[in-house]
Structures are given as C-alpha cells and as structure tokens.
C-alpha cells in the first residue's frame, strides 16, 4: 500500500517537473510578444506623443501583461525617485530585480540593455530607429522561441511523465 | 531657487545649497561649461564656486564640471527624454517649472542649412527668473489718456529689466489697478520669456485675464490674437523684424492697444532702425519709456509722448 502511494507520488511529481519545464517554453514566446508590443507602444509614445520617458514607461507598463509590464513600471519608479540617474540605469536595475521572474532569456535582456543606452538621449527620429531595431531583434528571437516551444514543450511534458513511469516500473 | 535645485543632479545641488546665503539670495545665473569651473553670477558680480560651496576668483579652485556631469544634467533637465525637447533644442534654451530658463550651447546639428538641434551640449546657463512685482507701478500713471490705454514702446539696452517691466505691466493691466479697471491682455511670447510657459501654462503670474500664445512668431501671433481672443491690449517683447512692424500697425488700427519693447539706448537710436523708425515717424506710439541701469536695474530714464516731449507727472491725466 505504501509502495503504491509512493509510486503515485513519484509519478505525480515527475509529471509536474516536466510540465513546469514545458510551461517555460510556452511562456517565453508569449512574454516576448508582450515585450514587442511594449516597445511598439513606447515608439508611439516617444515619436508621436513626445511623452517624457518616465510617463511613457508607466503608460506602457500598465498596458502590457504583468510580467513584462512590471519591468517598465519599476524602471519608471526608479527614475521618479531618482534612484537611477539615467534611463539605462533604471532599466538595468529593474531587470536585475525582475528578470528572473520572467520566462525571458539573456538575449532579450541584451536587446533591452542596448536600447536603454540610447533611450531618451537623442531626437525622435533617432529614437524611432533604435526602437525599430530592437523590435526587429526581438522578432527574430520570437520566431526562435516559437520553434523551440514546438520542439520542447510537448517533449518535456511527456518526458516528465514517462520518466516518472520508468522509476515506478523499476520500483516494482 | 528651490525649483531649480530640484531639477539639478545631486552633486550640483549639494554645492549650490552650500553657497553663502548672500550669494544664494541674489543668484542670477548659474553657468556651467564642460571641463571648466562652475561659475555663478549674483548681483553685478560673478565668481567661481569651490566644491565646498565657497566663492572664489581663482579658476583652478572651482568645482570642475565634467563631461559626465554635463550628461547627467542634460538627462535630468530633459527628464531623460531629449526627444521631447526638439523645439527647445532648436531654439537653444529650455524653460523649466517656475519659468526659469536654461540656455544651452554645444555642437549644432544642421538639416538643409537650418538648425535642427544641439548635440553634445557642453554649456549651460541657468538663468533664475525673479519676479519683481510692482515694477510697473512707476510707469502705470503715464500710460493712460482719458481712460484710454496708450500704445507704448519700451526702449532698453539688454539686462535693464525690460522684460520684467513688460510682464509687470501685463499683470497690472490684467488685474486692474488704481489707474484703470482690469482689461483683457494678450501676450505673444515668442521667446517664452514673458510668461515662461511650460506646456502652455504660464509659470509667471501674468494676471487672471491674460491669454498667452507661447513660442509663437510675433507677427503671426499678434494677428491670431486679434482675430480670436479680442484682447484690449497686446503685449509683445522685442519687436524688430519688418513683419512685426506691419502687425503692430495692424493691431493699432484694429482698436487694440499695443505695448511692445525694443532694444536700444534712446528713442533716437531706435528711430534709426528701419521698421521701428517708420512706426515712430507715423506716430504709432503715444508713449516711449526709456530704461537704463543708471540707478540699478529697471531705472526709468525718461518717458516721452508722441511728439518726443518729456512727459511730466503733472500733465498726466488720470483715468477714473
């Protein structure tokens, strides 16, 4: 009886682990999409609205999904409270604190970091160029992420379950 | 002063807060040039400032304004959003909360031969705006005849309180005073100096019945005002171009009183200038107020009437 309960437990936890890893692969393209939308909104705010960066961050942060939005909101807060002395610093600090909570990777972070270096420090035309460049980069990453999702999401989910099953079979 | 401090980077803020109180109270300009010591102008003097906030005349002892600080200052002043200041960069100054002005210089970027903006900003001139309420008191009685506001030309060399006086006249007329009831005032503020507008809202007190066209070319602005805002009096700073003259002429004949200013040391000097000379010859103005620094900023040197006679106080007719 105890053995049976143990077997069920192992099977369950192994599937959960597999499912978690699979979910990470599923989340990344979704959040990448949100980041893309965020940058496009930022472009509108900057190029057409001439909204000061801090306000633009707040606006964008509220309008995209939570995980990604939080980064912009925190960066805006850093600018507001003068904890950061430039847009670059603000984004950097916000990412330091929140990046681990997102499904995004180092490549996406690098794109945002290099964007941060120029954000707010040139005229509108130039800002637009840099924002578009970042968006193009992210698009490439998004495609890659989708391909990975197709490849790995199902695989990890079933791998978890099957791995659990293997242990259970070996147990008996 | 506190408004200015709030927008400065922390290092600079600390130094300026440590300035002797006599200097702080009279601060007129804070001048920052990349790789040069910090300079302040107060009263009629200027001097460098040491890192501990003491004033000094030796440049080497002054606090050095580094490239990094310059970038920080520009960031802070623009709220990290240079793109929102394109127009301001084209004009060469930024107006901030409180109507203070930050003049900038650096590498100018051209586009088809026209100034597109300033890149690599290396010089800052923070001009602290001071409101001298009551500056117009001395001239107000001269501006009326039978209760009618007279067209007035304010003549003054630079830095003699011309803009301050003009602003105070606008305010006094707008609020109403013992010499006249309140009137609708239209200000065409091409250089954002009179009302110091930030996002269209005057940062200076220009009175409750005052409309301001901010950053608008004077000639076009005057016509817009007459057409749409029906002012009783139009106030314009520094007329000088030919089209300004036409607009003044037009306004005067549209039944709107005009008070404007021009650079110059005397009526004679101003009359030599082509456009103003023409206006003066045709008798467009009924009062000429000449300013100087003889007894400090804002000294009223003389007031003349249409035919260039000195106006005596007794001859002034008081309106009810």
From TrEMBL, chain A:
Domain of life assignment: Bacteria
A family per Pfam: Spore_III_AB
InterPro entries: Spore_III_AB (IPR014198)
Protein name as it appears in the record: Stage III sporulation protein AB
Source species taxonomy: Bacteria, Bacillati, Bacillota, Bacilli, Bacillales
Gene that produces this protein: spoIIIAB
UniProtKB/TrEMBL annotation, chain B:
Keyword terms of this UniProt record: ATP-binding, Nucleotide-binding
UniProt signal peptide: none
The keyword ATP-binding is assigned to this record: yes
Domain of life of the source: Bacteria
Residues of the AAA+ ATPase domain: 148-286
SUPFAM superfamilies, per the entry: P-loop containing nucleoside triphosphate hydrolases (SSF52540)
KW ATP-binding (keyword) present: yes
Classification via PANTHER family: KINASE-RELATED, P-LOOP CONTAINING NUCLEOSIDE TRIPHOSPHATE HYDROLASES SUPERFAMILY PROTEIN
Protein name as it appears in the record: Stage III sporulation protein AA
Species this chain originates from: Brevibacillus porteri
Gene field: spoIIIAA
């Amino acid at each position: 009886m105890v053995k049976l309960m143990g077997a069920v437990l192992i099977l369950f936890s192994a599937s959960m682990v597999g499912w978690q890893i699979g979910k990470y692969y599923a989340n990344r393209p979704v959040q990448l999409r949100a980041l893309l939308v965020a940058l496009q909104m930022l472009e509108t705010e900057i190029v057409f609205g001439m909204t000061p960066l801090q306000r633009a961050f707040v606006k964008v942060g509220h309008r995209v999904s939570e995980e990604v939005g939080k980064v912009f909101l925190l960066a805006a807060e850093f600018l507001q409270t003068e904890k950061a002395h430039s847009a670059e610093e603000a984004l950097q600090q916000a990412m330091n604190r929140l990046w681990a909570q997102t499904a995004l990777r180092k490549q996406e972070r690098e794109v945002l970091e290099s964007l941060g270096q120029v954000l707010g420090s040139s005229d509108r035309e130039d800002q637009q160029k840099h924002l578009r460049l970042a968006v193009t980069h992210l698009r490439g990453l998004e495609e890659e992420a989708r391909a990975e999702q197709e490849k790995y999401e199902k695989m990890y989910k079933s791998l978890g379950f099957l791995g659990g099953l293997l242990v259970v079979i070996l147990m008996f | 002063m506190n408004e200015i401090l709030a927008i400065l980077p922390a290092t600079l803020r600390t130094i300026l807060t440590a300035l002797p109180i006599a200097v702080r109270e009279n601060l007129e300009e804070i001048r920052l040039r990349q790789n040069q010591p910090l300079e302040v102008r107060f009263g009629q003097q200027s001097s460098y400032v040491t890192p501990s906030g003491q004033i000094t005349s030796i440049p080497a002892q002054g606090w050095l304004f580094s490239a990094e600080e310059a970038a920080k200052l520009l960031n802070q002043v623009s709220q990290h959003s240079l793109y929102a200041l394109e127009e301001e960069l084209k004009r060469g100054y930024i107006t901030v909360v409180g109507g203070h002005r930050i003049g900038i210089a650096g590498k100018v970027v051209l586009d088809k031969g026209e100034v597109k903006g300033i890149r690599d900003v290396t010089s800052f001139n923070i001009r602290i705006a001071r409101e001298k309420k009551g500056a117009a008191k001395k001239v107000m009685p001269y501006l009326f005849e039978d209760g009618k506001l007279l067209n007035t030309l304010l003549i003054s060399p630079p830095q003699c309180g011309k803009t301050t006086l003009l602003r105070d006249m606008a305010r006094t007329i707008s609020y109403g005073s013992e010499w006249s009831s309140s009137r609708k005032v239209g200000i065409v503020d091409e250089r954002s100096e009179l009302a110091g507008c930030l996002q269209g809202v005057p940062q200076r007190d220009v009175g409750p019945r005052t409309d301001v066209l901010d950053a608008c070319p004077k000639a076009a602005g005057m016509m817009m005002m007459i057409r749409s805002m029906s002012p009783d009096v139009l106030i314009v700073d520094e007329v000088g171009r030919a089209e300004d003259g036409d607009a003044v002429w037009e306004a005067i004949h549209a039944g709107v009183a005009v008070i404007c200013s021009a650079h110059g040391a005397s009526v004679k000097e101003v009359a030599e200038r082509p456009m103003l000379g023409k206006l003066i010859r045709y008798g467009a103005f009924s009062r000429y107020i000449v300013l100087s620094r003889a007894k400090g900023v804002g000294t009223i040197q003389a007031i003349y009437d249409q035919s260039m006679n000195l106006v005596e106080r007794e001859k002034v007719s008081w309106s009810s």
